[in-house]
Amino acid sequence: MAAVVERMNRLLASGNYRPLLAVIKGFRNGAVYGAKVRFPHALVMAFLFKSGSLYDKFKTIFEATFTHSKNLAMFVFIYKSLTSLMEQIQSKKEQYHPFVAAFLGGYLIFGKYNKVNEQINLYVFSRVLYGLAKMAVNRGYIPKPKGDAFPWFAAFIWGIVLWQFEYEKPTLQDSLQSSMTYLYHDSDKWNSLKNFLIYNK
């Protein structure tokens, strides 16, 4: 066994088969990161907002964790495989390689609708929009704000989301609806000290 480990260490240190090994390591990192990110989130959401037995809650937690971990691992695998292949074919990196690889990976992996993919896509979408706004300022496409723009950014998104919650609730994601119901509607309901301070309802 020690000889096999030593041989593997020599192979990994040699730099041979680097593109292939990078794909394998990317798959591993995607699986680990997906589990690390999803498990605590699913645990909190299940115990805060999901009704049902302990078995049902843990089943939900492990299904969400597995889906997130598997999908992220598969996406990284596809992305790194395609970028590596395009670089080998063209003998250099091109700016369009990441877009093409991620576009195909996004369609194949994150294009299948489920709650986990919806949350991942919304998370990435918000970061993309924020990044595009910064890029537009940095490149001079729009003028740099004279003052601090962050308070206005916060004001608009919170104003819009609470208006949506009160008047267009079905348009919001289910987990956001649950969180907002708990914060803004359930706080209007009580009939004793017990469900005023200790329990929600």
Topology, element by element:
Layout: H1 2-14, H2 18-49, H3 54-90, H4 96-110, H5 115-138, H6 150-167, H7 174-185, H8 193-198
Helix pairs in contact: 2-3, 3-4, 3-5
Describe the protein in words:
It is a single chain. The chain has helices at 2-14, 18-49, 54-90, 96-110, 115-138, 150-167, 174-185, 193-198. It has eight helices and no strands. The chain starts with a helix and ends with a helix. It folds into two domains: 2-144, no CATH class; 147-201, no CATH class. It is flat, with a radius of gyration of 23 Å. The chain is mainly α and 201 residues long.
Features:
201 residues; mainly alpha; 2 domains; 8 helices
Relative strand content = under 5%
What's the helical proportion of residues?
over 70%
Kindly state the number of beta strands.
0
What is the 3D shape?
Answer: flat
Radius of gyration: 23 Å
The class by helix and strand makeup works out as mainly alpha
Largest sheet: none
Number of domains: 2
Contiguous low-pLDDT stretches (5 residues minimum) are: none
How many helices?
Answer: 8
Mean pLDDT: 90
